[in-house]
Design brief:
It is a single chain. The relative contact order is 0.07. By secondary structure, this protein is an all-alpha fold. It starts with 7 loop residues before the first helix and ends with a helix. It contains 5 helices and no strands. The chain has one domain.
């Protein structure tokens, strides 16, 4: 199960079911801060729902899709590996620098 604090937005939008919903309700019963956060999310969602809509310029969709197509994407496991590799390279570089300065 996810961290209850990360689920307050989904709970406020009535997007949780089963154990997650019950967990948020049980937590909010004893946590005024999270209960207030859920109420604020609900109020914000209601205001957004009442907002008037405007039609964006026709060319905007094409520009956004062009940017999306041009943005390189990597699977999540590659990103994690890249982060790990960077950390390892950094540690090696720091150790080499320390050895050189001795």
């Amino acid at each position: 199960m996810s961290d209850v604090h990360m689920l307050t937005g989904a709970y406020a939008l009535d997007a949780l079911r089963g154990r997650e919903r019950a967990a948020v309700e049980a937590h909010c019963a004893g946590c005024p801060a999270c209960l207030r956060e859920c109420e604020e999310f609900r109020a914000t969602a209601a205001r957004l729902g009442m907002a008037s809509t405007t039609t964006p310029p026709a060319a905007l969709k094409g520009r956004v899709l062009d940017i999306v197509r041009a943005t390189p994407r990597q699977p999540p496991w590659r990103r994690r590996t890249s982060t790990l590799a960077r950390r390892l390279r950094h540690r090696v570089a720091v150790r080499l620098l320390r050895c050189a300065l001795r």
